[in-house]
Amino acid sequence: MSAKGYTASNELLDHFDPEFAAPVNIKKNWLQSDEHLNHVIFSDQFDRGLLEHLCKLASMVKELRSDKEGARNLKNLIFNQGAELYFTQSSTRTFKSFEKACHILGMETSVTRDTKLSSEYKGESVLDSIRMYSSYADILIIRSEIPKLAEAAAYLMNNLSQERQRNIPIINAGSGADEHPTQALLDMYTIYRNFEFASPDSPYELRKFEALAKKYPELGRKGPGPDNKVYGFCGDVGRGRTIRSLSTMLARNYENITMYFISPDHEKLKIPKELKTHLINQGVELHEVNDLASVAPELDTLYMTRIQHEHDNESDKKSIQGSDLEKCYLSEEILATMKKYARIMHPFPRNYEIPTEIDTDERVVYFRQARNGLWVRTALIAYLLRQDTRIMNIHADFSKESHNYNESMLRH
Ligand code: NCD
């Protein structure tokens, strides 16, 4: 799809055609300074160290938030800063969790959901609008159906920075059909928690994994964390941006990964060629199949997705309906064949691919996964606004105090 917007007023995006054409490895350097990310646009920007840092930070936020004093300390962090949520494409979880994440950090939020109510309706270019928002906010979170809009916004901020003008971090909260890096972050956090953290500096987490390993020796042999696991991505593999972002993140950072791409037999729904080549080049053992039942017993994690009908053109509508979609639906029968420790994930919204009857199965984690978005997105905003060390200090004091409290309770 063209990177140019869908209305004439978006022609300013043309400015960045040369930047769009650069390889991702070069672009990554433009989006960070001194190894610290300034903007979050692609899932490929995250290395293992940063992922584990954000996961630990997310757990600290979660713990602090459950305590009144801890929650108050978080709220005091950046109450003098504000976020603009520019969400002109439909969204429930991503929007709500980002809004709430800002509030957890005490930030004010301002929201744009419908450009008919802003000056874009009068022909203002989307990049002029973005520059305006950047004068009122301290971070800008963008979800749009315009492909590459968040990327263009990041380059605009970089140009402003070079001119020593006001500029702020940009977060891509889903752009066109290409990327959804913050969904991949919360998916990774969920995968870490499914198989317990592999952090050698946390004896507590290793003990938790040992308990799991005792119960499930096969999982014990595979080890903690995301490495050495078999992942199944099922549904609209061709057009689902969450699958693209998560599979890229897994392939880049973890060892001995097997991936099954399970999609109906339709050109638009199967894994795109460039993604397939990219994953194989990263060392992934990759298989493509058309029915879930045939591979379900192999999987450690099953990542279900809906068919993204909003991208259908007239001829797709008929051919997609005729392509045996049911073979990629999860049923109670298929679930019964899966490993006892396997985990079922879904970015949501769901349509027909998962029956509600299985929601109570202990392998199902999709509701927890959505809630994890809250902690990870709070951690990400804190990191971008360089508040992560402060959160770690608050958490260290909190742990010391609750430890002292527990000790004194034991003494009495
Ligand atoms: C996804 C998206 O928007 O890409 N939803 C989400 O953000 N959780 C998945 C989808 O729409 O199917």
Provide the succession of SSEs: HHEEHHEHEHEHEHHHEHEHEEHHEHH
Neighbour order of strands in the largest sheet: 9-8-7-10-11
Please provide the count of β strands: 11
Helix content: 40-55%
Low-confidence stretches: 1-6
- Distance from N terminus to C terminus (CA atoms, Å) equals 68 Å
- The global form is globular
Largest sheet: 5 strands, parallel
Key structural traits:
412 residues, alpha/beta, five-stranded parallel β-sheet, 11 strands, 45% helix, globular, disordered N terminus, binds N-carbamoyl-L-aspartate
Outline the secondary-structure elements.
Elements: H1 17-21, H2 24-30, E1 32-33, E2 36-37, H3 48-65, H4 68-75, E3 82-87, H5 93-104, E4 108-112, H6 126-136, E5 139-144, H7 149-162, E6 170-175, H8 181-194, H9 203-215, H10 217-222, E7 230-234, H11 241-253, E8 258-262, H12 273-281, E9 285-289, E10 301-304, H13 314-321, H14 332-336, E11 343-345, H15 366-384, H16 388-411
Parallel strand pairs: 3-4, 3-5, 5-6, 7-8, 7-10, 8-9, 10-11
Antiparallel strand pairs: 1-2
Helix pairs in contact: 3-4, 3-8, 3-15, 3-16, 5-15, 8-11, 8-15
The structure holds N-carbamoyl-L-aspartate.
Residues 93-94, 174, 180, 183, 241-242, 305-306, 308, 347-348 line the site of N-carbamoyl-L-aspartate.
